[in-house]
Amino acid sequence: MSSQHFRWESELSESFQENMTPTLWTRHSVGTWVCAQESTCSEGRADIVWGKFEEGWPPTKFQNHARLLQNSTASRLLAILRQRSAQLEQDLLPRIGVTAPVLRKWLRALVEANFVTTTQDGRFRAMPRNTFPSVEICSFELKLKNWQRALYQATRYRSFSHRVFVVMPVKGAYVAYQHEEQFRKANVGLVAHEKSGQSRVLVRPKKRSPHAGYRTIMALGMFSQPGQSE
Predict the structure, then answer these.
(1) Residue 164 is part of a domain; what is its CATH number?
(2) Rounded to 5 degrees, what angle do the CA atoms 153, 156, 158 make?
(3) By residue range, what is the domain housing residue 117?
(4) Sequence-distant (≥ 6) Cβ neighbours of residue 208 within 8 angstroms
(5) 52-to-30, 70, 219, 220 alpha-carbon distances in Å
(6) Do the beta carbons of residue 189 and residue 200 sit within 8 Å?
(7) What's the CA angle centered on 132, arms 129 and 133, to 5 degrees?
(8) 3-state class of 69 per DSSP?
(9) Are 36 and 226 in contact (CB under 8 A)?
(10) In terms of domains, do 81 and 179 share one?
(11) For labelling alongside 160, which of 67, 92, 132, 221 has CA 20 to 30 A away?
């Protein structure tokens, strides 16, 4: 096979990671960018995820609570609870969909971590929203072929990402580009990546808020894990 082609997805991934920069997908690249491989915050695993943290918020700030933030019950509670309106346990139960003992376990954990506080009458409220930083997330699904499968998987990452791209070698990307309308309808971008390391955006998605706020909180926990690269 020609040296101008990728034989394995691992080769494509390595080349893309070595050469990509946030300027590929945003004009507002200034900030603290953190890269994670294989997301843990959605159904299906995005191959590469980049997150931009606002100035003054190092991702390591939540390192001690990374696992807590990645828990689905804890993250759902954080997405539902508000600072101004405290809620009773009995009101939270049907919205979270777990048993009472499980709910209490994670409420206690959130209180101990100072993410949630309790009122005198036993209600729960979130701590001030500035507890969490503003984060912008971009996810990538890499495939050598089968753009249909790549597009399907990429749409699942919109639950926690502001932008999502499918990345393919040039030949495969231009085959996929013949179906540009399907990518635009799904608001998923398409990138052609060359063996030389250069990338070209064929379809640029619009920045949109993630579908599921709790999954964005899970992503925050993922980025806070030790070992993520900046």
Answers:
(1) 3.40.1350
(2) 125
(3) 59-132
(4) 158, 162, 163, 187
(5) 8, 18, 12, 10
(6) no
(7) 120
(8) helix
(9) no
(10) no
(11) 92
